[in-house]
C-alpha cells in the first residue's frame, strides 16, 4: 500500500515505504510506476528500508508544472527526502530516475551514501538527441506511443514478454500531459550534470543491458570511468528494463553496491 506525502499545497508524492534499516530510495523511469521496482522491493526490503517513489504525474503523485526541467525534478526529490527525513540514503534510479539520481548526488552529495544509475543516459549523440526531442514533441501533441518504447525496451524472450505486458499496462495508464512534462525533461536533461562525476566520491554503480540502444553500454562506461568509485555492470542479452528482465543479476549487482563502504558525512 502506498503512502501520500504532501510537500506543498499543490504537490503530493505517493510512495511505498517497506522494511527497516538503511534507506534505499528507488526512482523509476518515464511512464512507469513504483511497481516497476517490484523484484528489488521484494529483495531489499528484507535488509533495508526501501522507499519506492512515484515520479511527479505518475501513480498518485501530482505533476510538476509544464516546462519543468531536470533540476526541477532534482529539487522535487530533495524536498521529498527532507520532508521524510530519510537522508543520507542509498539512491538508485532507472532511466529518467537515473538522471534524477545523478543530478541529486551532484547537488546534494551530503545526502547520498551510494548512487546507482540503471540504464542511464549520458550526452546523447546529435542523431539520438534529435530523435528523443522529436518523440517529446510527438507525446505533447499526439498522445502516448506504446509500440515504440516496448520495441526498444524488450527482446522476445519469455521473461521479457511477461515484463513487457506489465510495462504496457503502466504506460497505458499515464496521463498524456504528465507524460509529456516528464519526457521533455528527460529528453533535454542528458547533459545537465555530466561534468559532475569526477566530484562524486561515494560508491557509484552504472548498469545497463548490452542491447539497450538508447542507454548504451558506452554511456555507462564513460560515467563509471569518470566517477572515482565508479563500477560498471553490463548485462548480456538484455535491453532497457533490465531490473525486471534480469532481476537476479541486477539484484546481485545492487547487493555488491550496497556492501561498498561509504564516506562519513561531516556536518558543516
UniProtKB/TrEMBL annotation:
Which protein are we looking at?
A: AB hydrolase-1 domain-containing protein
What PANTHER family does the annotation carry?
MONOACYLGLYCEROL LIPASE
Where would I find the AB hydrolase-1 domain in this sequence? Answer: 23-245
- Species of origin reads Kiloniella spongiae
Q: Which SUPFAM superfamilies match?
A: alpha/beta-Hydrolases
**InterPro entries recorded:** AB_hydrolase_1 (IPR000073), AB_hydrolase_fold (IPR029058), AB_hydrolase_sf (IPR050266)
Please give one Pfam family short name.
Answer: Abhydrolase_1
